[in-house]
Write a structure and sequence with these properties.
about 240 residues; alpha/beta; Rossmann fold; 11 helices; globular
Length: about 240
């Protein structure tokens, strides 16, 4: 089993879009048993992947000692992808971790889920707190969507600098340019500076995901963004095999 976290300090960079489309690719291209775990209290992945409200109770309850993570798993509306849903209870997760005093609670839960899944995709909240620290320790790879603009690039550097100051083990980071519009000179310059970074282009079809409540691979598999996510996932699988 491998865990891939989709994380950014900055909101609005396409984090949920990445998480859902990579989970779809894991299940439908790599034929992996796939779980997407929505850790963001905004619950965007949960909204897109569920046809109705969550019926499994408080999302924060999974972190309590007496709750089996598999009891909280639900099938999503995407074939081959299961879901651990988010809700507003996750707004108090950092305080809960502090009270629990367990810095590796997330890693332990992921270890239990590894008996049931080959790939777990984490849709993470956009902050640098106890929750994100647990994610960075527990994941095997962290994908950071970066819009080719100064603020998004600065957010990436904040994460890199934070990790450089930590003595504990953390997952490798894979920056990916997101929402790229090659007509913009700022974007073109950024792509030239980091020519080896994967690129996901801007696409109107991405906006339709929340309307159709489906990943791109299910309703527009041949659009440039869908193809970019397929290439990205293929690279992720290759990187995970190399790390293993």
């Amino acid at each position: 089993m491998a865990t891939v976290a989709v994380y950014s300090l900055k909101g609005g960079v396409g984090k949920t879009t990445f998480a859902i489309n990579l989970a779809w690719a894991a299940a439908n291209i790599s034929k992996r048993r796939t779980l997407i775990w929505d850790l963001d209290p905004q619950a965007a992945s949960t909204y897109i992947l569920m046809d109705g409200p969550s019926s499994k109770g408080s999302a924060q309850a999974i972190f309590a000692r007496n709750v089996d993570a598999m009891d909280m798993v639900q099938p999503s509306n995407v074939e081959g992808v299961d879901l651990l849903a988010a809700d507003t209870s996750l707004r108090g997760l950092d305080h809960f971790f502090f009270e629990l005093g367990k810095k590796r609670r997330l890693a332990k839960l992921l270890g239990g889920l590894s008996r049931h899944y080959d790939r777990i995709i984490l849709d993470c909240p956009p902050n640098l707190t106890q929750t994100s620290e647990q994610v960075l320790r527990a994941a095997d790879l962290v994908i950071v969507p970066v819009i080719p603009a100064p603020l998004s690039q600065r957010a990436l550097m904040e994460v890199v600098n934070f990790l450089d100051r930590q003595k504990s083990r953390h997952a490798p980071i894979l920056p990916v340019y997101s929402m790229v519009d090659r007509r913009r000179s700022l974007h073109r310059v950024a792509l030239e500076e980091k020519a080896d970074w994967p690129v996901v282009p801007m696409a109107s079809s991405v906006e339709q995901m929340s309307v159709r409540k489906a990943p791109l691979g299910e309703f527009e598999p041949h659009c440039p963004a869908a193809k970019a996510f397929t290439r990205l996932w293929t690279g992720v699988e290759r990187k995970l095999r190399t790390q293993g």
